[in-house]
Amino acid sequence: MIFAETERLYLRTLEREELPRMRELLNDWEIARWLTMLPFPYMSRDAEEFYIDMAARYARNEPQFYALALKTDNLIIGGVGLHPPRFPDHAEGEVEVGYWLAPLFWGRGLMSEAAREAVKIAFARPTTLCVGATTDIHNRASQNVLRKAGLRDMGIVPRNYRALRGADHVTRWFVTRDDYEKEQAA
Known about the structure:
The chain is of the alpha+beta class and 186 residues long. The chain has a single domain (2-185), classed as Gcn5-related N-acetyltransferase (GNAT) (Aminopeptidase, 3-Layer(aba) Sandwich). The chain contains six helices and eight strands; from the N terminus they run ββαααβββαβαββα. The protein has helices at residues 19-26, 29-32, 44-59, 110-124, 140-148, 177-185; strands at residues 2-5, 9-12, 65-70, 76-83, 94-101, 130-136, 152-158, 169-176. β3 and β4 form a beta hairpin.
């Protein structure tokens, strides 16, 4: 099922037959090093557990993960997620956005395109009052993606959630529904 599309991408369901490709992509350290919750190496059982959880959410019409696929061939090249925030002191109505993209596709603006669409999807949900994100303080590319998606840099804060890797501090990003709607109207 296609949830949204941009000029060059589909944001769609992840299909079980795509798990080997997703596993191959996520076993690239250039992706995994920035994803604090991703097991590495990413094993078949990790992919299967993730798929079972996401398939159940798709069935309940509560998607949290959108496979990114180029419109030209519909092959998965990354993913974007909208999930409950990890910060214990998150804002009411907050949804956290996270994403990854295969390095072969970096530097083309694809992730910015997908993140903008994900923020749009988040605010289409009436319960979403704000969208937040965190990045490694050294991940400038990810910070640029969030900036282009309309989130604002809220500064460096202690990471007070469990993670498998990464620094003790993260850069926090945030946009409220009101600010998003004002920006879209301008």
